[in-house]
Amino acid sequence: MDTILLVGCGKMGGAMRAGWLEAGREVAVVEPGPSAPEGAVASPDALPADLRPAAVVLAVKPQEAAKVLPAYARFAGSVVFLSIMAGTTIGRMRALLGERAAVVRAMPNTPAAVRQGMTVACPGPGVTAPQRDLCTDLLGAIGAVAWVEDEALMDAVTAVSGSGPAYVFLLAEAMEAAGIAQGLPPELARRLGRATVAGAGALLAASTQDAAELRRNVTSPGGTTAAALAVLMAQGGVPDLMVRAIAAATRRSRELAG
Predict the structure, then answer these.
(1) Where would you tag: which of 2, 44, 104, 136 has the fewest CB atoms within 10 A of its CB?
(2) Burial letters 25-47, b for 16+ CB under 10 A, else e
(3) What are phi and psi of 71, to 5 degrees?
(4) Domains of the chain, residue spans
(5) pTM for this structure?
(6) How far is Cα 81 from Cα 130, in angstroms, rounded to an integer?
(7) Under CATH, which number does the domain 3-151 receive?
(8) In this structure, are residues 113 and 143 in contact, taking their beta carbons and an 8 Å threshold?
């Protein structure tokens, strides 16, 4: 089976590598830091001279791109480069790798660590159908995959799903604090908040109904849930705040991309 070359093996790179190994793929890793797995090399100069990977996956920090990417330009024209570097555009990567480089830009999120991630990918110029299929397979090892053809949409993707787990964790955190404020023991409030968010997410994932319908299903007229939602959904409440939050994250993503 063709080897996948992983450049950078931090938390996300490590999650991807674990998924690929579970799927039986061969993975070579370049990682100079303390997160380097057994068998990794610290520099591309230490890679076998005859290595011909099927894909080069770029999982380094965006600020390291200018220093790291040129060393892999020798693979341009023969492989697909799959990047998970947040905010780094296809044009910038091709400027560092060479205009022959076939680049796919992708944005995964942290549930990839438990193979429940959501990744959106965008193909650059020259990416072939087989290369796109390969990237779908590689990203599918850590969760669901979707594609967009317009790279400009990646900023909104980053705001919704890339940053999205933090919004969900904030919800669990806020529910815990609110439960404590109503007299619940802290450990019980923590358990209720975490289990409720996790269970509702699992139900949402398993259901064919949309989120609005599931919300209505659990809301009895005049009941406790309706009383809470009247506060959460009032003008300036959660729906309005989420629109503002996603807009702010989208703007920041565009700023970071330059």
Answers:
(1) 2
(2) bebbbbbeeeeeeeebeeebeeb
(3) -65, -15
(4) 3-151, 164-257
(5) 0.90
(6) 13
(7) 3.40.50.720
(8) no
CA pair distance 14, 256, nearest whole angstrom: 24
Q: Cα-atom radius of gyration of the chain, to the nearest Å?
A: 21
> Helix or strand or coil: residue 53?
coil
Cβ partners under 8 Å of residue 35, min gap 6:
9, 10, 11, 14
Q: Tell me how far the alpha carbon of residue 135 is from its chain's centroid.
A: 14
pLDDT tens by residue, 58-116: 999 999 999 999 999 999 999 999 999 988 999 999 999 999 999 999 999 999 999 99
Q: Which of 155, 127, 156, 132 lies closest to 145 in space, CA to CA?
A: 132
Strand partners for 117: 143
Mean pLDDT of the chain: 95
φ, ψ for residue 131, nearest 5 deg? -65, -40
Of the CATH numbers 3.40.50.300, 1.20.1600.10, 1.10.3730.10, 3.40.50.2000, which one belongs to the domain with range 164-257?
1.10.3730.10
pLDDT in tens, 157-186: 999 999 999 999 999 999 999 999 999 999
